[in-house]
Amino acid sequence: ISTAKNDYIYMSTNGGVSWNQLTNSTKQAWGHITASGDFTKFAVTTNTFIYQSINSGITWTTFKSAGSKSWIGISSSTDISILVATVSQGAIYITKNSGIKWDILYNTNKKWSGITNNLDFTKIAVAVDGEPIHFSDNSGKSFITKGIQQDIVSSFGAKSSSLCPPGTFSESRSNKCSFCLPGTYSSRNSS
What we know:
Elements: E1 2-3, E2 5-7, E3 9-11, E4 20-21, E5 28-35, E6 42-46, E7 50-53, E8 61-62, E9 71-76, E10 83-95, E11 103-117, E12 124-128, E13 132-136, E14 144-149, E15 168-169, E16 178-179
Antiparallel strand pairs: 1-3, 2-5, 3-4, 5-6, 6-7, 7-8, 9-10, 10-11, 11-12, 12-13, 13-14, 15-16
């Protein structure tokens, strides 16, 4: 699944060999997108709203409770019941009830961009324009920075299914999981 700025939402069902426009996705300034594990539910940001589809992209509605903001990054649980989203020059928001109510997770005025999380949302990584990647290992209560400059990569990559949570890996097949570098992932267990 992919978005194209000032274009449509596209999906590939053959590993990226070909891409087809999702039914009824309108041409607009789409941002980041997240999908359920079975690719039947989507949430996507624009510079004003977060849109959702719960029927494989046939229809789209806004998360009205999220309000109108400069939404940028978004990440979710595998069933899209929990979502985290970033606002440029704003806060990081979370919903734990499929978008019915959105709360501020972390309120620091930074130019947030891409965001990713592990399965239980205890680990979150966020890109910030012109700054190192910000990591949280306490469900977003606080963040520390790591040495990777965000301007190298604009957003985070796909999530893998491994012994470590999505967005993380283990170099030594131990229980210690580390964050994947932005734009990378592993599709093998603990690698």
